[in-house]
Amino acid sequence: MSASRRTERVATMIRDELSSLLLRDVSDPRLANVMFTEVEVSKDLHLAWVYYDTRDGEKLSDKKRAEIEKGLKSASSFFRRKMGDVMASKFTPELRFKQDTHTTEVTHLMNLIDQVKTPSPLSIQE
Questions:
Q1: Which of 91, 3, 90, 70 has its CA nearest to residue 42?
Q2: How many CB atoms lie within 10 A of CB 40?
Q3: DSSP string covering 72-102, please?
Q4: CB atoms within 10 A of CB 62
């Protein structure tokens, strides 16, 4: 039981840190519209599957997906090095990137975020 809580905690930390790095430190135009949606970590913490999608939830063409995967692959050593700086463990998991296929959920979440960012007409009048 504690191993699963630990892997969940590590997965959440990896997702949060990678998302932060992507926003702050990565300037690769292939990754401009990418977000990390979920991370799954192996029980031994040596491997992390990082799921990504586009912020607008658009269906990716094979060409666009290949460009994103090349961008992620080229940034993976940078991500792993930065993760090693913040993780309090003996090693840093190898990162493997996969496209998240839950696009409808992502689209719904992004719409909710946009609604929060955009004030409703009622709140302006008050």
A1: 3
A2: 16
A3: HHHHHHHHHHHHHHH--SSS-PEEEEEE---
A4: 7
- pLDDT, residue 121, reads 60
**Domain 2-125 class?**
alpha beta
Low-confidence ranges of the chain (pLDDT < 70): 1-3, 57, 103-107, 118-126
Domain boundaries, the chain: 2-125
Residue 102: name the closest of 63, 59, 66, 43 by CA. Answer: 59
What gap in Å lies between CA 80 and CA 124, rounded to an integer?
44
Residue pLDDT, tens place only, 43-56: 999 999 999 988 87
**pLDDT at 90 (0 to 100):** 83
Rounded distance between C-alpha atoms, residue 56 and residue 114, angstroms: 11
CA distance 84 to 124: 46
CA distance 108 to 115: 11
| Parallel/antiparallel/unpaired status of strands 34-41 and 47-54 | antiparallel
